[in-house]
Amino acid sequence: MHSATHQNRPAPPATGDAVTGDAGTGTESPVTATAAGDPNPRVVEAGGAGAEAAHSSEEDAGAETEGFRAAAARRRTAARFARQVAELSAGAFDCPLPGSGRTAERFAALTAVAEQDLCLARLVEGHVDAVAILAELGGPPPGPGERWGVWAAESPGEGLTATRTDRGWTLSGLKPYCSGAHSCTHALVTANAGDGRRLFAVRTGAAGDGTGCRPVAGSWQALGMAGSDTPDVRFHTVPAEPVGAVARYLTRPGFQHGGIGVAACWYGGARAVAAVLVETASRRGPDPLTDAHLGAVDMRLHAAGAVLRQAAAEIDRDPYDTEGAARVRGLRVRAFVESVCADVLTHVGRATGAGPLCHDERHARNTADLAVYIRQHHAERSLAELGGLAVRKESS
Question: What span, in angstroms and rounded, lies between the C-alpha atoms of 206 and 388?
């Protein structure tokens, strides 16, 4: 795995630890920072929290007056996504490639963005995943001003079909769950071709070139993750360039590494949800029930951070998966982090009650976003696969 060509500044340190006690200084709760040891709490964009506030003050003021509106959430997230990608291209935000020797920094960077805004993290993760896929499969890196997504979800129904003509490949049909459908200028898309499932690069309608790629109105009704803008997209003879060989998207080692990157985003969302419990415990003072919930959350977040750091180290030791451990690793990490997120949602809710959910707009959004995002995990289906692999490993 080679390193990114347009990412220079050091990222935050390895993914954070517990709720109580910063691993970097021992004085600050990491739940108030983007990652353990990061000296700039809530930093997503260059210039720190102040710059983020300056960028979004007008948007946030509008949100306060108009209440929650999905379209407004989509616009705010799209604007922040464009700024984040611009900073990535300029070297002001760093997200190293997986397997480059700095995978822990990559996961920490994704956690940091997610702790600030899970919807933004969903789009940023898609863009940096596309950068990694293109690097791994020999495609050209994204150009200036390009914002990429990875649209690879499959569901029963029409699906997306690739057709090869004398003038090249075209895609037609319906693709579900296309995050950033209105803001990504390009996407990596899976489609069924005559020789199997292939990955293609396409320009989207957001590129402004009149392509036949259009989001389906009304197909993204979510309240949680509303800003991620993840509707179905209709393709009509959209020109496409193949990326990699048939089925290579799923069989490459980076597919498993990328799945752990998503878990790093879930982890950041859990840290954001936990922040309100830390604030509540501080305000209430000694209280055995609140402290018990906080202890349970602290333990789980500490463990999730450790699991992500261990996974990063293992990826850097064997980026090409010569040992064949990547699939089991990915299944374990994603399942564990998903369970931590679910437990954090439960403990925080039981400890703090309905108040923050009803009166704290950011906490309500964080909670709703995380509940939706972790459903990207395949639950018992993934656990069953992991169990089967574990049995075969033990019997071999």
Answer: 43
Q: What is the pLDDT along the chain (396 residues), one digit of tens a residue?
A: 444 434 333 333 334 444 433 333 333 333 433 343 333 333 333 333 333 333 444 444 444 445 668 889 999 999 999 999 999 999 999 999 999 999 999 999 999 999 999 999 999 999 999 999 999 999 999 999 999 999 999 988 889 999 999 999 999 999 999 999 999 999 999 999 989 999 999 999 776 666 778 999 999 999 999 999 999 999 999 999 999 999 999 999 999 999 999 999 999 999 999 999 999 999 998 999 999 999 999 999 999 999 999 999 999 999 999 999 999 999 999 999 999 999 999 999 999 999 999 999 999 999 999 999 999 999 999 999 999 999 887 665
Residue 385 in tokens: 């696969």
State pTM to two decimals: 0.83
| Pairwise CA distance, residues 139 & 78, whole Å | 25
Place of tokens 């940023």: 124
Within the chain, residue ranges assigned H as helices are 48-66, 70-90, 103-116, 118-137, 248-251, 253-284, 288-317, 326-352, 355-359, 361-373, 379-395
Question: Which residue, chain included where needed, has tokens 């296309």?
Answer: 178
Q: Give me the amino acid identity at 40.
A: N
Bridge partners of 164, per DSSP, are 169
Rounded Cα distance, 360 and 338, in Å: 24
Residue 332 sits at the vertex; the CA angle it makes with 331 and 335, to the nearest 5 degrees, is 80
Closest by Cα among 267, 272, 294 to 283:
294
Q: 149 and 123 in contact (C-beta within 8 Å)?
A: yes
Residue with tokens 């150009």: 143
What's phi and psi for 34, nearest 5 deg? -75, -30
Q: Which residue has the tokens 């956690």?
A: 111
Tokens encoding 2 = 């080679």
Structure-derived torsion over alpha carbons of residues 370, 373, 378, 382, reported in degrees to the nearest 10: -60
| CA angle 348–113–13, rounded 5-degree value | 95
Residues 6+ away with beta carbon under 8 Å from 35: 12, 13, 14, 15, 16, 108, 111, 112, 115
